Automatic annotation (TrEMBL):
Keywords: Cytoplasm, RNA-binding
Source organism of the structure: Alteripontixanthobacter maritimus
GO CC annotation: cytosol
Subcellular location per the Swiss-Prot or TrEMBL entry: Cytoplasm
Pfam families xrefs: SmpB
Function: Required for rescue of stalled ribosomes mediated by trans-translation. Binds to transfer-messenger RNA (tmRNA), required for stable association of tmRNA with ribosomes. tmRNA and SmpB together mimic tRNA shape, replacing the anticodon stem-loop with SmpB. tmRNA is encoded by the ssrA gene; the 2 termini fold to resemble tRNA(Ala) and it encodes a 'tag peptide', a short internal open reading frame. During trans-translation Ala-aminoacylated tmRNA acts like a tRNA, entering the A-site of stalled ribosomes, displacing the stalled mRNA.
NCBIfam families: PRK05422.1, smpB
Name of the featured protein: SsrA-binding protein
Gene designation: smpB
Molecular functions per Gene Ontology: RNA binding
Record family assignment: Belongs to the SmpB family.
Bias-annotated ranges (Basic and acidic residues): 135-160
HAMAP family for the chain: SmpB
Amino acid sequence: MARPKPVEFDKQKTVAENRRARFDYAVEDKYECGLMLQGTEVKALRAGEASIAEAYAEVRGGEVWLVNANIPEYSHGNRLNHEPKRPRKLLLKEREIARMTGAVERKGMTLVPLSVYFNGKGRAKVELGLAKGRKAQDKREYQKDRDWQRDKARIMRDKG
């Protein structure tokens, strides 16, 4: 069976990346989501300030929410500043939400934010992964395979 091509999104400026998620989870599917933000949140993101290390996404009432993502207060925003860790709504199509809901409920998968970035049109987007958690043995195996791929590439480069 042919393997599907990896999905590539139009990433112009990456603001935050969750590198630990790729190690802790086996990402099976990726989605590009819009992000509902307030004005000072956009300004803080453009300044490159955000953290999604402890963040996760959940489906509530037919909508997907990004929970625990930290976008710190904008330095020049006065009384109109936002709350740093408030839940933010993710913008997806109904069919995508239904697919995610089914996978989370039936297969026990998790919605993990992989990165926050601005696309070519200047819109803030979240790369959301539908993932299955790895156990300790799987993590060791994944690391061993990754190290072997790196060594193999080094050997081929030196000989070739």
